[in-house]
Write a structure and sequence with these properties.
This protein has about 220 residues and is an alpha/beta fold. The model is unreliable at about 5-10 and about 15-20 (pLDDT under 50). Strands 3-2-1-4-5-7-6 form a seven-stranded mixed β-sheet, sandwiched between helices. It has helices at about 1-5, 15-25, 30-40, 55-60, 75-85, 85-90, 125-135, 165-180; strands at about 45-50, 65-70, 95-100, 110-115, 135-150, 180-190, 195-205. It has one domain (about 1-205): Vaccinia Virus protein VP39 (Rossmann fold), CATH 3.40.50.150.
């Protein structure tokens, strides 16, 4: 039963999915504030969030940005996020859709900012997802990826037992450069019993031909 519940954080659905969404909304308030700060969103920015969950970060970003869009592969989270952001959606300032990072339903260079919080580990392909984010970002557009880190000794009810290793974070940083991002930097912060790594990067003007993902 516990494993089934933790699986809801990948693609929430049904009654357990609604509970998972409520927990994400309750536990991620401080984290969302930090990610909004790292994204440095201003009045002229157009932002996309991949895996918006219950829509708290969307709500925070919409208070600063010109426009916020997002995709999530969970219809339960889409319903929650649309309810939470219904006024901004009616006003045309927010556009939330069911979809996947591997095939973003937006035109090239549509956004100046992009972010994703604790969803990259569920992407079907990290390389394809980063390639799509590069496509929809304008040149020099900023990307922020938040990743939950693994903690040794995490208890049965601690999501950190499923987190990333430092080695894996390093691999993702390399994948960012291979996908056409530059100025990749990693910052770390503790939130209660969790440690979050935030990778920040900018879309390069041109993809470097000298880099390739190691086999």
């Amino acid at each position: 039963m516990l494993e089934r519940f933790f699986a809801q954080f990948a693609r929430p659905h049904g009654p357990l999915g609604h509970v998972a969404g409520w927990l994400m909304a309750r536990k991620n308030l401080a984290l969302n504030g930090w990610i909004a700060e790292l994204a440095d969103v201003g009045p002229g920015d157009r932002v996309i969030e991949v895996g918006f969950g219950p829509g708290l970060l969307v709500d925070r970003l919409a208070a600063r940005a010109e426009h916020v869009a997002g995709v999530d592969c969970s219809k339960a989270m889409l319903r929650q996020a649309r309810r939470r952001n219904r006024r901004a959606i009616r006003e045309g300032r927010v556009d939330l859709r069911f979809g996947s990072v591997g095939e973003l339903p937006f035109a090239d260079e549509s956004f100046t900012r992009a972010c994703s919080v604790n969803s990259l580990q569920f992407w079907p392909s990290v390389e394809d997802g980063l390639g799509e984010l590069r496509r929809v970002l304008a040149p020099d557009g900023r990307l922020v990826l938040a990743l939950r880190m693994h903690r040794e000794g995490a208890g049965r009810f601690d999501r950190s037992r499923f987190g990333m290793s430092e080695e894996r974070v390093g691999e993702i940083a390399w994948s960012l450069e291979c996908a056409g991002f530059e100025r990749v930097a990693v910052r770390w912060r503790d939130f209660g019993s969790e440690t979050i790594a935030a990778l920040r990067a900018h879309r390069a003007l041109e993809r470097s031909a000298s880099r390739s993902i190691p086999a």
